[in-house]
Specification:
single chain, 137 residues, alpha+beta, Small Protein B, Chain: A, seven-stranded antiparallel β-sheet, globular
């Protein structure tokens, strides 16, 4: 089970990280059943801790707490070296967005991409290359 962020197609990533995500029990159960919404989600480093913003996880059907806001900030679990790299990339004006959420064993992981947004002409070139590859096959 792997959920992709369609917005990540508009970025050119220079590096990718795999991070654990801190979830409540009902959030984890909801992710197993329903698809999260990545619209406007991003990763920032706040007080030396990476945080995932604006990831919308739908409410679990059988959850007791249905009044909880599902766009909460969620802490990401990374090593100190990886956090230092993220901080240095952020100082270089790179964007950090979640690419995918997937299940690894019994733990949910978030793939974080660090890169820049593609310009319109770069997107067109990317589409042309993809179409050429399809016609060659």
């Amino acid at each position: 089970m792997r959920y992709f962020n369609k917005d990540s197609l508009d970025y050119h990533f220079i590096e990718k990280f795999d991070a654990g995500i801190a979830l409540s029990g009902s959030d984890a159960k909801s992710l197993r059943v329903q698809t999260p919404q990545f619209i406007g989600s991003r990763v920032e480093v706040v007080n030396g801790q990476p945080v995932l913003f604006n990831l919308k996880i739908p409410v679990y059907k059988y959850s007791q707490n249905t009044e909880i806001d599902k766009t909460l900030e969620r802490n990401l679990l990374l090593s100190e070296k990886e956090i230092a790299k993220l901080i240095s990339f952020r100082h270089q004006k790179y964007m950090m967005i979640p690419i995918a959420i997937y299940l690894k064993g019994k733990w949910f992981k978030v793939e974080i991409g660090v890169g820049r947004k593609l310009k319109k002409y770069e997107k067109r070139e990317k589409i042309k290359k993809r179409e050429m590859q399809k016609t060659i096959r």
